[in-house]
Amino acid sequence: MDFGFSEREDLLRKTIREYAEKEIPPRMKAMEETGSFPKDLLPGMAKMGILGVIVDPAYGGAGLGHLARIIMLEELGRVCPAIPMALQVHGMATYALGIWGNDDQKKRHLPRLTSGEGLGVVAVTDPSGGSDVAGMQTSARLEGDKYILNGRKCFITNSHVSDFWIVIARTGEGGKGLSAFIVDKDAPGAELGREENKVGLRGANTGELAFTNCEVARENLLGEEGQGMGIAIQDIVNCGRPGMTSVALGILGSVLAEAVKFAQERTAYGKPISKLQQIQVYLADIYSDLEIARLLGYRVGWMLDQGMRVDAESALAKSFACEAAARSARKAIEIHGSYGVMHEYPVQRLLRDALVTIPAGGTAEIAKIVLARQAMSVAG
Length: 380
Ligand SMILES: Cc1cc2nc3c(=O)[nH]c(=O)nc-3n(C[C@H](O)[C@H](O)[C@H](O)COP(=O)(O)OP(=O)(O)OC[C@H]3O[C@@H](n4cnc5c(N)ncnc54)[C@H](O)[C@@H]3O)c2cc1C
Prior knowledge:
Layout: H1 7-23, H2 25-34, H3 42-47, H4 66-79, H5 82-100, H6 103-114, E1 122-123, E2 139-143, E3 146-157, E4 164-170, E5 178-184, E6 190-195, E7 206-217, E8 221-222, H7 228-265, E9 267-268, E10 271-272, H8 277-305, H9 311-335, H10 347-357, H11 364-379
Parallel strand pairs: 1-4
Antiparallel strand pairs: 2-3, 3-7, 4-5, 5-8, 6-7, 9-10
Helix pairs in contact: 1-4, 4-5, 4-7, 4-8, 5-6, 5-7, 7-8, 7-9, 7-10, 8-9, 9-10, 9-11
The structure holds flavin-adenine dinucleotide.
């Protein structure tokens, strides 16, 4: 086993860290206030290969792979977790097109995503419930050479900052009756719904999409009819959960840095509070959560790059890292005393950001179902 990073990965981390520390902080106040993603960052991110990190170079990508993607998103997230939240769903769109798109679809759509024209969208969740994917109600009916879509999608990342969306809709009965479509935002009958006002990850746009007799050309079917469930689930497992793990890693890194800084600067009883044993226990807990989450997250990236299945590993990394980010942010707030609940200190935002990661990409309860299945299969 090799737990070291390659020189290329170390350099990538350093380059992204420098970029993030320079470019993102000046935009964070506006992101927090308006809840908008800073689209002006996209051309620079495109040049650095961030937007096409897992895309084949033949279609304008950097082709660096999944571990590189996790490192990139983690480093961006150390500065501002809303940025990798938006980019992780963008990555899911590039992944879906790369795996299930035909050559024409890849040529038409991937360069739009890697060049920074807009961010990618994968719309699975219906208002009827995100966990019950097979029960979704958004429908698509084939009429001549067009599909007619009806229904709504909610909690969709990048909904209002994208020019086209990958939408899962029902073309038949049950889980086998779902299909994936590439829907242009200007398609007749497609509409943007409300933008959500989230408590955290505010700079990542989340909103609704609505379809009323929306016309989608038959050639915009992604993969085969009936493959929608597989596309949605595999995209979540291989890209969405590793992406959300990276967002949580970013939060954990930032939580640890803020907690240590405050504990070393704040004095009580004539010495820094970092000398108090209970404060050290908090610091040790946060550090442990970060290190364990990193090992779980990097393992998933490495396994994906080896072409291995990661169903259980990705659910474990995601659910552990997101819960760890929330409990560690709570501990960092305790270390800050009353300063922890003042807007001037970032730890309150980090807790809000961490809470938002928990349902996104699949809830903790759904991850437990995957993990229980794995437990019974390895023990049985
Ligand atoms: C910031 C953010 C970004 C998001 N981005 C996207 C996106 O880009 N695309 C997209 O399609 N969706 C997106 N989502 C939606 C997200 O995937 C869903 O919210 C999530 O899957 C949960 O669905 P729900 O909110 O409808 O809750 P429900 O599915 O209604 O669940 C409610 C509760 O019941 C529990 N539950 C459900 N089923 C079971 C079960 N079988 N056993 C035990 N407990 C169960 C859940 O765990 C939860 O506690 C995003 C959500 C957030 C918060």
